[in-house]
Design brief:
With 182 residues, the chain is an alpha+beta fold. The chain contains two helices and ten strands, in the order αββββββββββα. It folds into two domains: 124 residues; 29 residues. Strands 1, 2, 3, 4, 5, 6, 7, 8, 9 and 10 form a ten-stranded antiparallel β-sheet that branches. α1 packs antiparallel against α2.
């Protein structure tokens, strides 16, 4: 009876582990070679939660060109519907963002998947209202550049669960074959 209870417990643990999402975790992206046609550049990094699209560890800087003076962006403006295809950053986390620099960066592919992603548009300017629903005095241009990420080599929970379940089943099969030979 003890053996049966142990097998049921192992099966339940395996089912719980297998039900977790395959892309759980966070990815840190680095902006590379991102430049405006007018001469300004954007560089830095941010971390995105691959389950919720929430940003953290934001550190993005733009340089000046003829259209905009450049800024350092350390804060995310949470979107009404979070997206893995664009990020909206500001230089301040104050309740009233009117007049504060902000940037929106749009990507070709989902930021929830590790690898390299092309940046196809960056718009930068000064927030014209308290919640930064739009920009004034901005540069809105197609850009060149990309973002890359190097995820840690930690196995995803679902992959690890499959390995453990497979190992357990092999052990169980071996045990049964030994008992049948006795």
């Amino acid at each position: 009876m003890t053996s049966l209870a142990r097998h049921i417990g192992i099966s339940l643990c395996g089912a719980i582990l297998l039900s977790s999402t395959a892309f759980a975790g966070a990815l840190t992206w680095t902006l590379e070679d991102l430049s405006y046609p007018t001469g300004g550049t954007v560089s830095g990094s941010f971390t995105i939660d691959t389950s919720t699209a929430a940003l953290s560890a934001v550190d993005v800087t733009s340089t000046a060109d003829g259209a905009f003076g450049g800024a350092t962006y350390l804060y995310n403006i949470p979107a009404d519907s979070p997206s893995f295809y664009e990020i909206l950053l500001t230089s301040s986390n104050s309740a009233d963002l009117t007049g504060d620099p902000a940037i929106i960066i749009e990507f070709d592919s989902s930021l929830a998947v590790a690898g390299t992603d092309t940046v196809y548009l960056a718009s930068e300017g000064l927030c014209f209202d308290s919640s930064c629903d739009g920009f004034g005095n901005s540069r809105f241009e197609d850009t060149t550049g990309y973002a890359t990420t190097n995820p840690a080599s930690t196995p995803e929970p679902a992959s690890l669960a499959l390995v453990l379940l497979g190992t357990g089943l092999l052990g169980l099969n071996r045990r049964r074959s030994r008992q049948s030979h006795l």
